[in-house]
Amino acid sequence: GVDSYLMDQKILFLNDQNVTAPLQKDYGNDNMIDIDDTGEYILTLNKANAKPFLVITWDKVSTYTIEAHGSCKGRTSGMCGSWNDNAKDDFIGSDGKLWKLPERFGVTWAVDDNTDCPLSDFGKVCEKAGIDEDVVRAKVIALLSGAKLKDCYVAMGDEVIVQNLVDDMCSCGGAQTCVCPALGKFAERCKKERNINTDGWELTKSVSCIPNCEDLLAKGASFQAKGPKPAPSCLNPKGGIQFQRGCFCPTGKVLSEGRCIDVIDCKCNYAGVTYAAGENYDKPDICKTCTCKGGGAPDTCVDMTCVNTCKQNEKEVSVVGKCCPECLGTWLTTDKTTIVKLIGQPVELSCKVDGHVNVAKVTWIRFNPGYEEVTGLTNTYSLSADKLTLTIIKLTQNTLGNYKCVAESDAGSRAEAAIEVTNIAKEDLITPAFATDVPVYPGEIISLQVNKDEPRKIVAIYWVCNGKRITTKTKGYKVENKKKENKLTLYGVTTLLYRGLKEVKCICFAKGAGTLDSAAFTLKPIDQLQLNIAPEKKSLTCKAMKKGCKLTFIVKMSPNGHLITMDKTYGEVCRMSDNGVLTRCSRITHDNNYPELSRLFRPFDVAESGKYIVRINKNGIVATSDELKLTIN
Q1: Could you give phi then psi for residue 507, rounded to 5 degrees?
Q2: Rounded-to-integer distance, Cα 598 and Cα 402, Å
Q3: How far apart are CA 597 and CA 211, in angstroms?
Q4: Which has the closest alpha carbon to 184: 250, 246, 230?
Q5: For residues 203 and 148, what is the distance between their CA atoms, to the nearest angstrom?
Q6: What would the pLDDT profile of 371-417 be if each residue is shown by its tens digit?
Q7: Nearest to residue 633, comparing CAs of 547, 549, 541?
Q8: Residue 414 CA to chain centroid, in angstroms?
Q9: How many CB atoms lie within 10 A of CB 24?
């Protein structure tokens, strides 16, 4: 199983259940999570070969810090940055873009929760709050110039640090206490990086950052600049031999359920839940059942006993992280267990239910990384009416991972089906040959084309139209693959569009060696067609009495200049006199899939030099080309 920890102001949650600190949970193999409360919540993840592996500190107001073990270097992402000794690439958002402003970067990693995490309104914080920024800045510099922080300000202070503190103070009406958490992190960083002693900085009169320990921790607690680390608790009455700043109970007492008590009065606490002496409780992550001894004495534990009775249409399934197998229904399946997509594309995840089962409830969960129900996150996901199809609206680094569809039948049976969503690297392999928004006129045959930028790197290329993969056997389509281009011709698209379908979307995918590129075209019906005809060359020279020369005109459709490819376009080539009169017109027919009207011209005399145009009549629409100047010699 996967546990979810949430520190929200002064409240602590484990898997949505309100719990208390100190908290400890054993995950086996010498892996453990501890949460201490020193007026700040300090979550420590200890692993067998890395203690501590991760430390997250939350000040119960607005500031958190993360410290990771050195083995994580080069393996971090998200809000933690890349940790690769290159500070310039730390602000890579979930959209894959590199952002300059930390605020913009942070918003890309925000969870889909407009209530608790609304999108920030960036701008001048003090100005919006109606506070004189110069006055606040003077206060901030005075705080940084205090006795304990002065050397740090000289060694590490810069405009970014000052501005962040100014913004913090203005965001809460100019109160000095609002910058205390940030000042504390600055002091800790200075002590660690520059070896400057900042112990007791908050006790300086000019700073006034002494926390209210009776409010943050418990009645009788007081602040210590160098208290024991970890703090004394019923699990560890003496505490640690290292030091930390924070709020602590009086000597000889420990923190339990928000009170400072004598060790003899200790009960047992596991995973944030308190048990009385003699009470039994489970440690499911290490498959043990324990009996509380109390008074600070260690508990006694034995192996858990499993009893399972599965119903019809259910099977016993071993679940990673669970001591006992579970009974899950066999009536829920999925066609794909893995989906690979490009960042920025939509992703559709679907589950199927046996026709004999009536589903009462469907929930979608994203796990590994994390464990989060995503059913109601409507900014990031959309659901079908029966909730059996979940669509990731736009794939980002933040939405990669594993998903499972959890369904419950009206008979009480429960089933799951999992799908992994991964991304493939994008490589520039193809580009559209013309505009990707394609207006379509009734009766028109449409050709879509991509040019191959890197032909040698392309190992496969194919088209998908409205979710259907096109092959050489797909009726109504023709695919032509050439060395430097790939073209798709659609013969029945106008039938689809003019029978009520609003648009047809065709995407060309090109696969490289572990990479992918795509080009999308959107076809929409139009009521009125505008044609534009232009000579391939504005002037042409031919020799009399020879094989002749070819007069070629290109037909395009306005307004986007999409190339016309219609089966049978009738027209005529005409000579134009100086006064604009058309003479000597001869008929031409355009009956192939290329946007050209052409005619082989065999001149017999230099007198045939002059201006020539093409005029066509298509579905009652008449269009005339620009002039082509022909010279005979």
Answers
A1: -125, 130
A2: 57
A3: 84
A4: 246
A5: 9
A6: 788 998 888 999 999 999 999 999 988 899 999 999 999 888 889 99
A7: 541
A8: 30
A9: 18
User: Starting at the edge strand that comes first in sequence, how are the strands of the sheet with 347-350 ordered?
Assistant: 347-350, 389-392, 381-383
Q: Which two tokens stand for residue 404?
A: 């499972």
Q: What is the DSSP letter of 512?
A: -
> What phi and psi values does residue 102 have, to the nearest 5 degrees?
-60, -30
Query: What is the b/e burial string over 363-397, where b = at least 16 CB atoms within 10 angstroms of the residue's CB?
Result: ebbbeeeeeeebeebeebbebeeebbbbebbebbb
- Whether pLDDT at 254 is above 80: yes
CA distance 630 to 625: 15
Please calculate the CA angle 178-184-190 and round it to the nearest 5 degrees: 140
Sign of the dihedral defined by the CA atoms of residues 209, 210, 213, 215, in that order: negative
Which pLDDT band, with edges at 50, 70 and 90, does 29 fall under? confident
Percent of the chain with pLDDT over 70: 88
Check if the beta carbon of residue 417 is closer than 8 Å to that of residue 406: no
Q: Cα separation of 467 and 460, whole Å?
A: 18
- What pLDDT shows up at residue 567? 42
The model's pLDDT over 476-517, given as tens digits with 9 standing for 90+, comes to: 889 999 999 999 998 866 656 656 677 888 999 999 988 889
Sign of CA dihedral 276, 281, 286, 288: positive
Spatial separation of the C-alpha atoms in residues 362 and 349, rounded to whole Å:
13
* Peptide bond between residue 525 and the one before it cis (omega within 30 degrees of 0): no
Q: What is the pLDDT of residue 253?
A: 93
Specify the residue for token string 């005619």: 599
Query: Rounded CA gap, 376 and 274, in Å?
Result: 33
